[in-house]
Design goal:
Length: 182
């Protein structure tokens, strides 16, 4: 898993390191890591917690991003999103900033204007939409049982936005244990 963490950091650094021209100093880009909440438990409520598989995925996310230098964590105000980010938040000593998923263009503008590295915890319908609002490539829509996407959107001071799509943990909840890197 350390390889995936290293890869996520390396990709963000390489993508952001390309200056428009040699005479222009390169400002630090805004880097946004985006994930859908982990697997949820079925408890019959509108705000269920994450399941045991979700807890394992949340731990996996913390390991994958432990060296990414996350400065800010943003979550919708639901248990499953906050719990997905909890291991990283606790390990890094960060506060969670709640955002309104009903106004993603405004939130995207806020992210673009805020320097640093951000983790955004969202939902199957809001995460790809936010990637697109940031100028990134969201790819195919998220499937109902798909929890393993990790988008890395790099927004340079000048030039085009870059998107890297990674996967972490088990691809399908029925697969059980997280995938292992060779």
């Amino acid at each position: 898993m350390r390889r995936l963490s290293f890869l996520a950091c390396l990709l963000a650094s390489v993508i952001s390191g390309c200056a428009p021209n040699a005479d222009t100093p390169l400002a630090d880009p805004v880097v946004v890591y985006l994930v859908r909440h982990a697997e949820r438990a079925e408890d019959g409520t509108n705000d269920p917690p994450i399941s045991e598989a979700g807890l394992a995925r949340a731990q996996e996310l913390a390991v994958v991003l432990e060296d990414a230098g996350i400065d800010h964590v943003h979550s919708t105000d639901l248990k499953r999103t906050r719990q997905t980010g909890a291991p990283l938040v606790e390990a890094a000593g960060l506060a969670v900033q709640v955002y309104d998923p009903s106004d993603l263009p405004a939130f995207a503008a806020t992210l673009r204007a805020a320097p640093g590295r951000h983790l955004v915890l969202g939902h199957s319908n809001t995460t790809p939409e936010l990637v697109a609002a940031l100028g990134g490539d969201a790819g195919e829509p998220l499937e109902d049982g798909e929890y393993d996407r990790l988008y890395v959107v790099v927004i340079p001071a000048r030039g085009p936005v870059s998107t890297v799509l990674l996967h972490y943990g088990a691809h399908d909840p029925s697969e059980g244990a997280p995938m292992q890197m060779p």
